[in-house]
Design brief:
2 domains, globular, single chain, three-stranded antiparallel beta sheet
């Protein structure tokens, strides 16, 4: 018989599953994301002007920038580089570099 209980531990929701074996505990924040993922996101550095400027310079070397802008709109719901976070900038930089190698 499996027993599942939900309780609040240190301000976080914790699910405890006991199936007459080991006890597994999954900690979630109130919004439902794992706590460690939330902490990692806080630790990521904000994008700098240098990162944004470098990416824009790379984009200028492309013959058709509309593919990059369409990609940004699909992935991040924006066409403005200045609105992206550092992880998004890194992903977009990778995409632009692939396009530059193909051309």
């Amino acid at each position: 018989m499996t027993k599942i209980s939900i309780e609040q531990v240190n301000g976080q929701i914790a699910d405890t599953i006991n199936n007459h074996g080991p006890v597994y505990m999954v900690r979630l924040d109130p919004r439902g994301r794992p706590a460690e993922q939330r902490e990692r996101r806080k630790a990521s550095r904000p994008p700098t002007e240098i990162d944004q400027r470098d990416l824009l310079q790379q984009m200028q070397r492309l013959s058709d920038r509309s593919t990059v802008l369409d990609f940004m709109e699909r992935q991040y719901a924006t066409r403005n580089v200045l609105e992206l976070e550092s992880s998004q900038l890194h992903h977009l930089r990778w995409y632009v570099e692939v396009l530059l190698r193909r051309s």
